[in-house]
Amino acid sequence: MNKKKRGRPQKENLQLNSTLILECAKKLLLEENKIPSIRKIALKLNIDPMSIYYYFPNKNSLLEEITSSLMKNIYKPKNSNDWKNELKLLSKSYLNLLSDYPGLLEIMLQMESSEPANEFINRLRIVLSNLELNDEHFNSALCLLADYLHGVALAIQCDSKNKLSINQIDRPLLLFVKAIE
Question: Long-range CB contacts (< 8 A, 24+ apart) of 41-46?
């Protein structure tokens, strides 16, 4: 029987690191569509749960790292005159991420840290940079778009008949575009 060791990982156990823990947690989130527990991650890695706390001081720090890591995978817009298409690509990429990881939206909405959200905000700034919006207008556009995209993500997650798709955002995005032009 393979007995797990408690506490700090031993030096000979070099394969355990924060990246391995993050990848395992993301895989579990993808497979189970919910936030993985520390115990579940440890079981999957065949380690003592306390070993995870050597790399992450608490579950919230692990969740923040998972979310930040995943948010780095959304579309990286170009500073382009075709900002409308860039907006569509960014929005669909974000919705695809939320669709692939249904528990992710729940994690982000419960987080105290804004680092993962800043990833989207910075990319939206690139998309809208040619419009030269003042801070108030940019923040209003951001709130409106984020609320819309989160609503779409939630609707898609709740759609048991699979009638909704990410491609259906094209026309509503046109209204958003007209509002901020």
Answer: 42/4, 45/16, 45/20, 45/21, 46/2, 46/4
Start-to-end Cα distance in the chain: 65
Residue among 174, 74, 82 nearest 131 (CA): 82
Query: Looking at residue 11, what is its pLDDT?
Result: 43
Buried b (16+ CB within 10 A) or exposed e, 140-165: ebbeebeebbbebbeebbeeeeeeee
Given a contact cutoff of 8 angstroms between Cβ atoms, the answer to whether 95 and 172 are in contact is: no
User: What integer pLDDT is reported at residue 70 of this predicted model?
Assistant: 95
Low-confidence ranges of the chain (pLDDT < 50): 1, 9-14
26: CB partners within 8 A, 6+ apart? 66, 69, 70, 101
Q: How far apart are CA 158 and CA 152, in angstroms?
A: 10
Report in angstroms the alpha-carbon separations of 44 from 5, 11, 32, 149. Answer: 15, 20, 13, 33
SS3 content of the chain, % helix, strand, coil (to 5): 70, 0, 30
Report phi then psi at 136, rounded to 5.
-65, -45
Its pTM stands at 0.85
